[in-house]
Amino acid sequence: MARQVRSEATRRKILDAAVEVFTEVGFAAADRGAIIERTGMTKGAFYHHFDSMEALASAIIDEGAALVVTELGAMSDSFSPALENILHSTFITADLFASNKVVRIAEQLTLAFGKFNDTAIAAYRHWIDAMTVEATRAIAEGDIRAELDPHMVSESIISATFGARVLGQTTSDDRDLVRRLTQMWELLFPAIVTETSLGYYREFLARESLRHVELDGSH
Fold it and tell me: How do residues 150-176 score in pLDDT, each as one tens digit?
């Protein structure tokens, strides 16, 4: 048991060091030796846990995706109106991206490899499925237009959110991501929100945006 605990601690140390190095220089320029040196371990300890840099990157993607799934799990448990949950979830991912290095590097690695691994695919499918449930409920609540397909609405929102985060990497200002998400919703609202609910959700968006700008400023 003690050996297993030590092994997990060693693996954790390698992952943390890799996240720091990838944050500083990017995956392409990262050197295995720099990661090993930062951990203070031997090459043998590194290779015992990760036989390649790709395996190390995949483990970080796994962890980042799992963190996103955990954070978004609360969306389906909320008793708030469904469209509030949907909107809130997009800003939650912005907070994760701004405040959690593992999540941020995991997404950057996914883009660097040009494909999702199984865990990342599962995370995004989970998000789409959960949001589709909420979109269906939002239609029943009269907030999303009844003629729209809830799955299509969910995929469109998540695609736009992902794109906003990718564009957000062009600036070091975390508040810029909140601004992009706010603009995204301002454009989406007329297309998906019922006319009777439009005024309320514009006010809700303004409050949500302001709250997350304040949160990002405190990171």
Answer: 999 999 998 898 888 777 666 655 567
